[in-house]
Predict the structure of Large ribosomal subunit protein bL9.
Amino acid sequence: MEVILMEDVKNLGKKGDIVKVSDGYARNFLLPKKLGVEATKQNLHQLKLQKEAEERRQQEIYEEAKELGKKLEAVTVNVKIKAGEGGRAFGSVSTKEIVAALQEQANIQLDKKKIQLNDPIKNAGIYKVAVKLHPKVSVELTVKVEAV
């Protein structure tokens, strides 16, 4: 019997896959637990429509990430930190501070988890910080750190 999986099933397949299983496994396990539905013409057509809608949604998310990436590359964020002698900071600039400054200065909402700091920023200066907006879209944000 062919079954369309409605959820990921360990050792069988992922959601949306069409798999061939024994009749008993389908009738006694997959169908009653709503883990899959029988692969009829109507269900296959419904699956096709769902996949097309998901592809369109993923494409829209990708386009939005590219637009946001263009905005971020054009912006320079100013962050002020307390510093002692020689410009050495007390502590470091965190992603949370960068996101707050970005919101305040450029009115761009961003999740702090998307900003990737390789090394902590502890000195005044200009830094390029990687921002991963989408698996296919990564940009560099310019952060200017000023000692106070």
